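Working notes for the structural subgroup meeting. M.R. asked for a predicted model of this chain before we commit to crystallization trials. I am recording the input and output together here so anyone reviewing the notebook later can reproduce the run.

Input as submitted:
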Amino acid sequence: MGADRKLALITGAAGLVGSRIAQRFLLEGMSVRTLDQRPVDVAGVESCVGDVTDPGAVQRAATGAALVVHCAAVISGTPEETMRVNAEGTSVLLEAAMQAGCERFLYMSTAAVYAFDDRAVVDESTPFVQEGPAFQLSRVRAEQAVWAASARGLPVTVFRPHYILGAHPTSTWSVLLAQRIVKGEFVLRGDGSGSWPYVHMPTVSATGWAWTPCPSVRRSCRGAGASAERRRSGSWATSHVFRMKRRCRKPSATWLKAG
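Returned structure, recorded in token form:
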């Protein structure tokens, strides 16, 4: 890896989101190391095979990383596995990032953390769910760990997309959804007039790149609306980099929050 290129560690890079972010970062000139349970088939990356809950594997992967992008997650699994990977794995990665002197930690969360409860508007002030499926609760616990690390001095950005579209064998809301429809396993409730807050993968990867610890990127992507003091501190927050409204009972959710 080039000595003058910052290194990004991306977890879950064998999946849709992680692989596309890895490709975008490589295109922009960053060095990329990945950590996944499977080898990552993206040309130009340094692929590390390991589990995010393994402190040794995570610490080795995080060494030298200026940026950590955490995309690894269990979406459908046993409650025990879901909590172990999503919550405990995030805590392990945060500790490794802090020990490595990481300049920013990007966490790919989900709008599923919100307690929608038929609210007309959902934003950063909306409370998290307190009970429900293991997936939602695990992502809430993971976010709580991220914000606790932020309070200890780690610069963080949390993304909360809803439904991500992209062509990949693991894509829940495009490839896998189409397969479920063909099998008759998916039912969309309502009269068909509702809309959903989709976001396309190029938007996700572009927004992730905007938060890399590269001065030229920070100047071009964060200048509007941020005070000079907040830009210098690196603790810049925005409410709705991407937001779509839908005509159904549950509103769309915040795209990202940073601290």
